[in-house]
Amino acid sequence: MRFLLVIVCLLVAAPSMAHQLKSSVTTVLFNKRTSNIELMHRFYLHDTEHAVGKLFEGKVDIISNKVDQQRFAKYVESHVALKTLSGETLKLNSVGAQVDGKFFWVYQEAAIPKGIKGIKMSNGALRDLWPSQVNMVNVEGKGKIKTLNFSQDDTWLEARFEQN
Amino acid sequence: MKKISLTLSAFVLPLAISSAAMASSVEQTKGSYVDKFRQLDEALPTPNVYRSAAGEPGENYWQQRVNYDIDVKLDEKKRRITGSQSIEYKNNSPHTLKYLWLQLDQNIFKSDSIAETTKTFKSTLNSLPAQKPAKLSLGELRRQQFMSDNELGYTISGVKDDNGKELRVTVVDTLMRIDLNEPLKPGKEAEFSMNFAFNIVEEDAVGARSGYEHFEEDGNDIFLLAQWFPRLAAYTDYEAWTNKPFLGSGEFTLEFGDYDVEITVPADHIVSATGKLDNASKVLTRTQRNRLEKAETSKRPVFIVTEEEALENEKEGTDKTKTWHFKAENVRDFAWASSRKFMWDAKGYQQGGDVQPLVMAMSFFPKEGGDLWKKYSTEAVVHTMEVYSKYSFDYPYPVAQSVNGPVGGMEYPMITFNGPRTKLQDDGTRTYSQAEKRFLLGVVIHEVGHIYFPMIVNSDERQWTWMDEGLNSFLDGVAGREWDPTIPWGVEPRDIVSYMKSENQVPVMTQSDSVLRLGPNAYTKPAAALNILREVILGRDLFDFAFKEYAQRWKYKRPTPADFFRTMEEASGVDLDWFWRGWFYTTDHVDISLDKVYQLRLDTKNPDIDYSRLRDIEADKPTSLFVERNRAEGKKTWVEKNTDVTDFYDENDRFTVTNKERNSYNKFLKGLEPWERKTLDRALEEDKNYYVMEFSNLGGLVMPILLELTYEDGTTEERYIPAEIWRRNYKNVQKLIVTDKNKPLVSVTVDPRWETADVDVENNNYPRRIIPSRIEVFKKEKSKAKVSRDIMQDIKTELKTDEKKDEKDDGEEQQ
Fold it and tell me: Do the Cβ atoms of B135 and A9 come within 8 Å?
């Protein structure tokens, strides 16, 4: 019997601390007013604080240092991608990041392509650091809400809209 | 592409089944009626002599009692536990027992356990020659290596009855059956003993609720021991023996009893455990005992083992041992921690009252805990007891402890394990971030809170995680706000919105190990639900009374969800079946839309008034564009050009009142009964404003409608419409709202303060207003506020350590 051979890539992961919440929620909003797809990523501040400690050298302070906030936002942006159902990449522009209460928000946007029937998305933020990271994405503004749940080894998930 | 459709269908299926099962009583095949207010009696277990319809322990309530006498030894080098225990089992049930079941939780780490063999792998696999690699984490490999290098799980031997006669045992995964030599009759006691041993898991490698943590730099370990001895499984009136295996998520269901535990550890270790230290004179120095006494009345924590002493301690080990003797009364479990790295501080909490006037709040932590632990751990323990007792009962045990180790946060009677640490900086100092401080406060309050729920109010964690985590997350939010309300404590209704509108969920009433996302499902959603129940539906007086009643009824007893639901309803006097059904038994969310507002005007029936009003309405209509343009072009009409030709209708329009109408009005007035006349006169005199509002329930979850009415004069008024408005039609309702003559409405908002977890606030306003998305708001504020920043200068700012952080630094974001 022959097994299918699969390449395995090792995730270098620091041992996980049980207390961090290790989950993020992203809203992908098709905003008719602005004609943009708006991506709003919400992280627990405490998760991001541990993350920047691992991602960047030296002293890092995500709560009050704008430069570190931007560095983390860049990191998130480099781990999120959007495509049309046919596989065309949708260019995401960075909008900014902010601390709000116990959350850290990262914003991105892209123009809504004409006649879009669904999206493919990849959301690997923090999942290269902690295998237990779960990123939930609610796709809104296109009929019934679609939820994508990135856990374990999910790379690309897709949401198809029922209406346009 | 294939993958997502598979995932979706997997989610859809269980939901479809559960809603089909509900269809029998709640949904019908005729019409679209859904009985959101169906009483829960038929879904809840039938009340009986053990559990009453009021949610109280019934007249024949019983529970078993199990006392343990344990001697245990920690082999530090082998990281192995060996122990022996003798157990007294008191059968208070009305049934004769031929066998007893014990929980062997350490067996979850065996390679053939159900938990281990049913772990799933989730990955998008592409066979060669595909270029995309699958992923496997080093953490997962470390875990597998640790588990294959170490023999894990219990070794059990010498199970004997009190006559020394051997007892037959049968191990079934994480459970063990002991066949008694004599059947155990109701009211009788059985005594038996056994030896047990197991290798301790490395917490960071395996991920568990206990284990050891190794510190490379000083070579020492912290040992946290929990689920460390074979414990009697619960035998209950509602489930008999709890046979659900330990799969990792559903925690423990245990019996109360007294413990006498002797713990032998290296002589330089400091031990913290469930219970009161019984041989302080043997294991503590005179100085340490004096410090403990001083701590009883001290305003701030007093060190029993100082940092210097702990640092000295961790430099060298010893082959000598010491035995620490602890006694604990009326607890459902026993845990302990041991290390030579521990410093130890204590402060007496003068609780007063008869139950336990003095409680020693204590913390045990290594140097890695640093100032964060020195300043806040023990104080947070005291604060938790102060707040929780107000909402439940006096803390009934002599000690309450917080221990730092590798476990992020876990609770046991009188002792909790908490993970936050400081960070060693290059200059040798230890600092911590603001979030780490919030985390320490949050986790200590949460875990110490668990000593109340479920360590005393002994809910069945194996089945229902929400019963302890949900209730406790709700209460830790209460206690947190009483510590510092500026810290965002979570469990606000708005915190659960993104989860509740997602497709990815199961009802709260789902057994713990089957829950898809335990955090939002078992912690945040029930906590937010209780918050809403308290702040919106019942109000604080009714809620706090009922909640305290629940806590006191079930103190040292074993409540089920039905007992909680029934007590909260029965003690508050408010029908809450719709609330439990919606929030706990379904995945509905809240989305109430205010679709339309109609203004109504009362007819006076008096033609002299009504006809002129009709004329005004006609006059208010916009003129025809056709006519307007004709006029603009300077066109003169025939009438304008021939002013000499007029008749009656040029003077009197179609709203002209004649005596014909007046006579019929007078006839109408005469025909009225006296009460009708009186009512009409008064209504006409008051001339109130009448509005009909049309609401639709898009989320399915029935909830009260919270209205904010804004009037022409700029004032606002709040109105509360109870959830029962949805009882005959949960989808659409109309409501007549009457306001005074001088209070015409200009706008209406549903749930203006975001108190109900309404997922779409855009449809909450009438007239509709644009609710900008977060990005729109962010962009607007950025353009307003951020341009004035001198980034070229700011970027030169030196990073400060968090402790010295100027609070103004992050002020900008919160403006």
Answer: yes
Distances (CA, A) of A144 to A33, A120, B134, B554: 19, 17, 32, 43
Whether residue B782 and residue A17 make contact (CB cut-off 8 A), yes or no, is no
pLDDT tens per residue across span A56-102: 887 788 888 888 999 999 999 999 999 999 999 999 999 999 998 88
Positive/negative CA dihedral, B143, B146, B148, B150: negative
Task: Return d(Cα B122, Cα B623) in angstroms, integer.
Answer: 68
A149 and B434 within 8 Å at the Cβ level: the answer is: no
Q: Which residue of B has its CA nearest to A30?
A: B773
List chain A domain ranges. Answer: 22-160
Is the distance from CB of B360 to CB of B400 less than 8 angstroms? yes
**Cβ pairs A/B, distance under 8 A:** 186
Q: Which CATH superfamily groups domain B62-120+137-204?
A: tricorn interacting facor f3 domain (2.60.40.1730)
Residue B493 carries which DSSP code? Answer: G
* Cβ-defined contact of B134 to A15 (cutoff 8 Å): no
Phi then psi for residue B551, to 5 deg, are: -60, -45
| Report field, pTM of the whole predicted structure over 0.95 | no
Tens digit of pLDDT for each residue in B645-699? 999 998 899 999 999 999 999 999 999 999 999 999 999 899 899 999 999 999 9
Q: Show residues of chain B in contact with A64, CB under 8 Å.
A: 805, 809-810
Q: Note whether B739 and B722 are within 8 A (CB).
A: no
Alpha carbon of A57 to those of A61, A138, B77, B435, B519: distances in Å?
A: 11, 33, 36, 19, 31
Type of residue at B492: E
In the three-class reduction of DSSP (H, G, I as helix; E, B as strand; rest coil), residue A145 is classed as coil
Q: What is the ipTM of this complex?
A: 0.81
Parallel, antiparallel, or unpaired for β B358-365 and B235-236?
unpaired
Residue B804 has pLDDT above 50, yes or no: no
Are B531 and B474 in contact by the 8 Å Cβ rule? The answer is: yes
B540 φψ region: left (φ > 0), alpha (ψ -120 to 50), beta (else): alpha
Rounded to 10 deg, the angle between the B370-391 and B465-483 helix axes is: 110
DSSP states of B35-65: -TT--GGGTSPPP-SSB-TTSSB-TT----E
Burial class (CB in 10 A: 0-12, 13-18, 19+), A72: buried
Q: Where are the alpha helices (DSSP H) in B561-651?
A: 561-572, 577-585, 607-620, 625-632, 638-641, 648-651
Asked if A59's CB is within 8 angstroms of B799's CB, the reply is yes
Window 415-474 of B: residues touching A by CB (8 A cutoff) are 419-420, 423, 425, 433-436, 438-439, 443
User: Is B787 in the A-facing interface, judged by CB distances under 8 Å?
Assistant: no
By Cβ distance, the residue of B124, B134, B502 closest to A8 is B134
Token digits of residue B114? 């159900």
| The token pair that represents B297 in the structure block | 């009345």
CB atoms within 10 A of CB A7: 14
Summarised one tens digit per residue, pLDDT across range B513-534 is 999 888 899 999 999 999 999 9
- B728 contact partners, CB below 8 Å, separation of at least 6: none
Residue whose tokens read 């005074």 = B740
Architecture of domain B592-602+687-770: Sandwich (2.60)
Please state whether beta strands B168-172 and B336-339 pair in parallel, antiparallel, or not at all (unpaired): unpaired
Nearest Cα to A42, choosing from B485, B791, B778, B479?
B778
B592-602+687-770 matches B62-120+137-204 in CATH topology: yes
State whether A63 and B433 contact (CB < 8 Å).
yes
Domain residue ranges in chain B = 62-120+137-204, 592-602+687-770
Helix (H) or strand (E) holding B71: strand B65-75
Contact: A4, B125; criterion CB under 8 Å: yes
Q: How many CB atoms are closer than 10 A to CB B173?
A: 18
C-alpha A45/C-alpha A130 separation (Å) is 16
